[in-house]
Amino acid sequence: MLTVINLGMTNEGRDRLSDILKEQLRGLEHDEAAGVAGFEEKLKGESLDRIVLAVRIPANGVCLECHQMRGFLIDHPGCLKGCIGGIIIDGMGELFTKSVARQLAFAMDLAGCTLPGRALVEATGTLYNFNTISKVNGVDNMTAYGKSVGALIHKVNDFKMPEVEHPNILVVHASSRSTSNSILLWDMIKKDLGDRADITEISLRNGAVIDCRGCSYETCLHYGEHGDCLYGGVMVEQVYPAILKSDTLVMVCPNYNDAVSANITAFINRLTALFRSNDFSRKRVFALVVSGYSGSDIVSGQVIGAMSFNKNFILQGGGIMTETANDPRSILECEGIEGRAEEFAGRLLGQL
Known about the structure:
The mean pLDDT is 93. By secondary structure, this protein is an alpha/beta fold. The chain is globular. The strands form two sheets. The protein has a five-stranded parallel beta sheet with strand order 2-1-3-4-5, sandwiched between helices. It has a five-stranded parallel beta sheet with strand order 7-6-8-9-10, with helices on both faces. The longest helix is centred in the middle third of the chain and has 18 residues, at 141-158. The chain is 42% helix and 18% strand. The protein has helices spanning 16-24, 35-45, 64-75, 97-110, 131-137, 141-158, 181-193, 217-225, 234-245, 262-276, 296-310, 337-348; strands at residues 2-7, 30-34, 50-57, 84-91, 120-123, 168-173, 198-203, 248-254, 284-291, 320-324. The protein has two domains: 2-158, Flavodoxin domain (Rossmann fold), CATH 3.40.50; 168-348, 3-Layer(aba) Sandwich (Rossmann fold), CATH 3.40.50.
């Protein structure tokens, strides 16, 4: 059954998101709880199957209940194991809706919750971010917001994880195999996979990856319909066919200045042409994020925002593995790394 957790309610208990939820939940079997205390009570009663976090944030972006929820999820890894989740962020200002959503999604992933592709609805204070969708559908922004919330609720409620008997895994990286801790981590995981998956590895270092230069929508769609892109190269020749063939994508993402590397950024941006004309909603995305010092949460948030919120990939619970290793081969000295690599391999094989 679907459970809606309300966070950041006003003193009056009513706001535009509450009104939308009342309308969109009408006739649907569901349960509701308020705040982290209400969430904990639900966890005590039984394991949660479907969950939507409905979050209100002030203009300054600071919602104490939201921070408490994130902290609880991180402190209780696995508490949402096997659960399907979604997020609604209603902001009073124009900032922070996406960053709060990324932080919550990362915490949900650590707690074992699976997010279907595009499992986020965000509303800025002016609802300006609904301008395009409202024009396309011939409705006002508030109506577009309500319909988006309804669509997310039904997506979470109806979602079924695709069965993966023998995964076809595409691994993309842009690292030097001789020095990269990230590649060493992937090699450990690959060893644990054995012959239980078909694996294709593509190094984005082996060819120039020209970043997206912002073609018009019509031009991008035209090329994407033919599995092509105006700028060609390794993306069209190798990556596009491999993406279409695969059911699972693994992104190897070392932390470069608290961001994914330039080639990985170009990879994400250049996927837009293929995404416009292909459905990625049954494909899973995983990420290996290795930082030399700190900041893996920032890079993880970038992957979640770009690949799951935007490109519609499923983020399976526990789909992001973070490690800290600086000196070459020091990843091998991380305590318990073999066990974590084996567990990650199991998730790649579809084990929740």
